[in-house]
TrEMBL record:
UniProt source species: Streptomyces misionensis
Gene Ontology MF annotations: ATP binding; kinase activity; metal ion binding; protein serine/threonine phosphatase activity
Protein name per its UniProtKB record: protein-serine/threonine phosphatase
Ranges for domain GAF: 52-196
Domain PPM-type phosphatase: 216-430
The organism's taxonomic lineage, starting at the top: Bacteria, Bacillati, Actinomycetota, Actinomycetes, Kitasatosporales
Function text: Primarily acts as an independent SigF regulator that is sensitive to the osmosensory signal, mediating the cross talk of PknD with the SigF regulon. Possesses both phosphatase and kinase activities. The kinase domain functions as a classic anti-sigma factor-like kinase to phosphorylate the anti-anti-sigma factor domain at the canonical regulatory site, and the phosphatase domain antagonizes this activity.
């Protein structure tokens, strides 16, 4: 039978030598930086394992609870080839029916010292896996500490020594501290991922259903930021009006969080009601939206473009629009000519609801593509926005003859190679 020893009682040893104490403080500082360096908790835990070997142990194993089982996230050893022999990508059996030391820790039993490893037990798969691990690593002394936070075990750190040098009281305290810090990092990353997923799903659910616009050739897309992993208030909309025309809109509510996504949904619903109710021109709708937004909501600052597309049976299509502090729409023609529609520009929503706004107008040539987009498509940190707009015009000109879905996908691919912000696009192809 495997002998599991609880941590020994406090020893009456003296203070640590200054150089040892300093080394352990440096280890804690290095581990803290590694765990705080990003939101990829699993990579942070791998860095932790690399830091503690060989300072605290000859090998370090990180196990995380995954569903009903245990996933061996990483094994770090002085001998890299030895570590590869014991690291598998599968999920080990869960701790509920096992008597091994790791199972005890994962069930909330606290730190455990192991010096007698017994034998494999075919009836206890987790114990057999641990026995094989210890044998391959040449373990003589093992300390297992929980990764525990908010009364929940998230996993365990296993420190392995190939000598019988025991883990003293200070080393056990250090290992327990490392386990607690690792648990906090893992828990924070999981909570952040849950919030991010919730916000993104909410934002996607609030993006419009474009049914009722079958007579228009539309292509839309929303991309969440790749590097910052945040969800913001980028939005687009398209809906029919009673007179047969259609409203196209795009905008950005200030913020990058769940609240911004909620505010985006409120704003879009208000716009639909205001535009459908009276038949105002785009500038009139924008003024009313600004007043209602400031009077009835907590939404602070918004950029937006509201456009109206008239599609008569005979004669050219016509576009009227107004712009509240947003980037100008782009009109690309099949022959490669591109135009930024810079007229009708006024300050952003949320500054002064009495500011005058104007409606601009233009004819939409047959075969042309109207593109509404948010700033994430063209902005790059440290780069003048003019360069981004020039790049957009060049790519749109090269793609203007392509089918609309290809135009959208290729434009996003070419413009979003380094994406630092959310991107929303709405494209219309004129017959």
């Amino acid at each position: 039978m495997m002998r599991q020893e609880p941590p020994p009682p406090a020893a009456t040893s003296g203070e640590l030598p200054p150089e040892v104490a300093a080394a352990r403080l440096r280890l804690l500082a290095d581990v803290s930086r590694a765990l705080a360096s990003g939101l990829d908790a699993e990579e942070s835990l791998r860095r932790l394992a690399r830091l503690v070997v060989p300072q605290l142990a000859d090998a370090c194993v990180v196990d995380v609870i995954e569903g009903e089982g245990v996933r061996r996230l990483t094994v770090t050893d002085r001998d890299a080839e030895r570590a590869l022999r014991v690291l598998s990508g599968g999920v080990l059996p869960g701790p509920d029916d096992s008597a091994c030391a790791l199972a005890k820790v994962l069930r909330g039993g606290g730190p455990v010292l192991v010096t007698d490893f017994g034998a494999a037990d075919p009836g206890d798969p987790l114990r057999s896996a641990q026995w094989a691990l210890y044998r391959t690593l040449g373990a003589r002394s093992v300390l297992i500490v929980p990764m525990r936070v908010r009364r929940q075990e998230l996993g365990a750190l296993t420190f392995v020594r190939r000598t019988q040098l025991p883990f003293d009281e200070q080393e056990q305290a250090l290992a327990a501290d490392l386990g607690h810090r690792a648990a906090l990092a893992l828990d924070n990353a999981r909570l952040y991922a849950m919030q991010e997923h919730t916000a993104e799903q909410l934002q996607l659910s609030l993006l419009p259903d474009l049914t009722g616009l079958a007579h228009l050739r539309l292509a839309t897309s929303y991309l969440a930021a790749r590097e910052r992993a945040e969800v913001g208030g980028d939005w687009y909309d398209a809906f029919p009006l009673p007179d047969g025309s259609a409203v196209l809109a795009i905008g950005d509510v200030v913020g990058h969080d769940l609240a911004a996504a909620v505010r985006m949904g409120q704003l879009r619903n208000m716009l639909r009601a205001l535009a459908y109710d009276r038949g105002d021109d785009p500038a009139g709708v924008m003024c009313r939206l600004d007043r209602v937004m400031q009077g009835l909501t907590g939404i602070e600052l918004v950029t937006a473009v509201i456009a109206r597309v008239e599609t008569p049976d005979a004669g050219p299509w016509r576009l009227t629009w107004t712009n509240a502090g947003h980037l100008p729409p782009l009109l690309a023609q099949p022959d490669g000519r591109t135009t930024l529609l810079e007229e009708g520009h006024a300050p952003i929503l949320g500054v002064d609801p009495e500011l005058p706004r104007e409606t601009a107008s233009t004819v939409l040539p047959p075969g042309s593509t109207l593109l509404l987009y948010t700033d994430g498509l063209v902005e790059r940190p440290g780069e003048d926005i003019g360069r981004g707009l020039t790049r957009l015009r060049q790519h749109a000109a090269a793609l203007a003859h392509e089918p609309l879905p290809v135009f959208r996908d290729e434009l996003l691919e070419r413009m979003s190679d380094v994406q630092h912000d959310d991107v929303a696009v709405l494209a219309l192809r004129v017959p």
